[in-house]
Amino acid sequence: MEQEFELIAGCEGVRNEIREADRLTQSGAYDGAEDALKRAEELKRELHALQTSLIGEWEGSMTPLVAHAMDHVFSFDLEIGAARRFNELARRIDRLERNG
Which residue from 1, 72, 92, 98 lies 20 to 30 Å from 28 (Cα-Cα)? Predict the structure, then answer.
């Protein structure tokens, strides 16, 4: 059970980096936002490795907590991708507005 909580707690670190990327994008710090997304991806990779190492232990004992933890990790690809697209679009809009 402790490892499941570790997995869920680690998810908060990924979400914090995604939120930071969003905040930086909104302030025009596009490179900083990309750095935050890279940190989010690295944390996600670490969580995925932990999740993968635990799957054998979870076999036949899928609890709501385990399902919740897995949902978090699986959703990060979409969230990071959306944040990256937002950053790219905001950067393009900013460039177009400056160049007329």
Answer: 72
| Block residue for tokens 């710090």 | 29
pTM, two decimals, is 0.86
Report the phi/psi class of residue 60: left, alpha or beta, with left for phi > 0 and alpha for psi in -120 to 50. Answer: left
Q: Which residue has the higher pLDDT, 13 or 5?
A: 13
Q: Considering only CA atoms, which of 2, 34, 3, 15 is closest in space to residue 72?
A: 15
Amino acid identity at 59: E
Number of structural domains in the chain: 1
Which structural domain, as residue segments, surrounds residue 67? Answer: 2-99
Asked if 51 and 73 count as a contact pair (C-beta separation under 8 A), the reply is yes
